[in-house]
Amino acid sequence: MTPSYQPDGMPLLDVRDVTVRFAGLTALDGVGFAVAPGTVHAVIGPNGAGKSTFFNVLSGVYKATSGSVRLDGAELTALPPHRVAALGVARTFQNIALSRHLPVVDNLMLGRHRLTRAGFVSSGLRLPHARREWARHLDRVTEIAGFVGLGDRLGTPVGLLPYGVQKRVELARALCMEPRLLLLDEPVAGMNGGERLDMAELIVAVRESLGISVLLVEHDMGMVMRLADRVTVLDFGRRIADGTPEEVQRDPHVVRAYLGTSPDQEDM
User: Fold this and answer.
1) Where along the chain do its domains lie?
2) According to CATH, what is the number of the domain 1-88+180-268?
3) Per-residue pLDDT tens digits for 73-126
4) Deepest in the core among 35, 157, 164, 262, taking most CB within 10 A?
């Protein structure tokens, strides 16, 4: 199965026929689509559709049984997570994965690890070139913190921050990796209405101001339909639809997967 949508020129992310099997269970079955540079692309589907498995394949946590994932022409499917990150893929998680006892600035500095050239010994001895590099990274971390609205929280331990702010810290840490593709796993899960709106505005700013392509998994369909340029729908590990938000909303396979009805019976 080849992607139903091919943007002009080479896509940033090209997913072709990705299949994942666990002990005879097929979690993904021939999934394929393309993500154009500078766009927000959503992957949606009912619970158990294979969305988390797909993100784990993209980030190198799982290995695909077959198929291909290419980022700007570079094959990712056989690479471990640190090699995938080095090529420009950063990820947030559905459940916050931060060091709660460390201040925000230290959590964000962890995102600079792949960009650090000074070795362990040089850093430990605080040699001049290591100190200069650390200062450059700190300047960039401070800039990114300001971008996401955390400029006044750099010294605060993450565990003392409200949940919605912690989600922004995790997004900021991913941005500190200087990614070309940002994977957002349910970025507004557990947030209240105001926090959801703030996060949606931040995602738009990431694309428009930083030029980073965004691939997101999200259950908030209102947010998906407002933010996404294109939407891919999974159900039982298979791609059942791919198109603009308007096209996907009208697709009878999508209506059936979410509502158990045909479009004639219920208007999505």
Assistant:
1) 1-88+180-268, 98-178
2) 3.40.50.300
3) 999 998 999 999 999 999 998 888 899 999 999 999 998 876 666 544 355 445
4) 35
